[in-house]
Amino acid sequence: MEGVAGISHQRQTMRGTDDFAAARALMTAEVNAAVEGALQAGAVEVLVNDAHGDMTNIVASELHPAASLLSGWPKVPWAMMQGLRDDDVTALFIGYHGASDAASAVVAHAFSSRTFMSLRVNGQEWGEADLNAALASERGVPLGLATGDSAFCRALATRLPGVQTVAVKEGIGYGVSAGEHPARARARIKEAAARVVSRALAGELPLTPRPERYALEAMLANAGAADLCLLHPGTVRVDGRTVLREDTSADATLRTVLAWQFLSSPLAPGHPMIPGGRA
Predict the structure, then answer these.
(1) Is 10-110+128-201 a CATH 3.40.50.10780 domain?
(2) 92 - beta bridge partners?
(3) Residues 146-159, mean pLDDT to the nearest whole number
(4) Most buried among 105, 107, 114, 239, using CB within 10 Å?
(5) Is 31 exposed, middle or buried (0-12, 13-18, 19+ CB in 10 A)?
(6) Mean of the per-residue pLDDT values for the chain?
(7) C-alpha 205: how far from its chain's center?
């Protein structure tokens, strides 16, 4: 949701605020644009994984009727990538945001803004798109399209060259963006989705590059949260707030991220501006 056109501030993305209903509608409409483009190109099946927050954001009655919806939380074991199949022709990432270290990126974080202050793989800051794309590639599915703010798109184009990106807004700061009307952004997403799916169906999309080994390092919100991550087998402590675990697959690495997130969540701080503070 953070990377959807018309959304600039964290409070818009949080259940319980007066902005949330409008943000859900914007997210649903942007997903529909991607679905329409995929169908136009010849897709016969589209699965939409609602992948923001508690993963119950997309308005089911407003979703394109040709799409199937995967909704709810927790989704074990792959969360945002649940439902991925080895015979899928491509993955489309809609509404993504920058990694934790991204400057001028709207609500930049990785997996949990309460839990992870930094998330690095092999010494490089990674966001959700990086790890999710690696998992898809590992399963033989290329990432064809990613949409979000300009900072996210620039960073992804550098790390994963060849992936089509659509910047739906210009990131000005953590809670500030500028952009065209959401309807115009949706038109560009539809066009891009059609191009990408057409190439995918023709077998022209290469798999995105992925590392052979994953040294996953996370800086937690506090030492207590790091204590809890040590309950996950194979996790070692680097310093008071930082933990490390090494694996040879994106699958195992994603499972570690989710395990750390769930384990450490009770001691992670709340969001002071959000009702309840625990989203």
Answers:
(1) yes
(2) 145
(3) 96
(4) 105
(5) buried
(6) 95
(7) 21
How far is Cα 131 from Cα 129, in angstroms, rounded to an integer?
6
Side chain identity at residue 21, one-letter code: A
Lookup: tokens for 73: 């939380």
Largest CA distance in the chain: 52
Rounded CA-CA distance 98/57 in Å is 20
pLDDT for the residue 98: 96
What crossing angle do the helices spanning 250-264 and 128-138 adopt, rounded to 10°?
A: 140
Query: Residue 240: which pLDDT band, with cuts at 50, 70 and 90?
Result: very high
| For residue 38, pLDDT beyond 90 | yes
Residue 206, preceding peptide bond in cis (omega within 30° of 0) = no
Is the pLDDT at 277 greater than 80, yes or no?
no
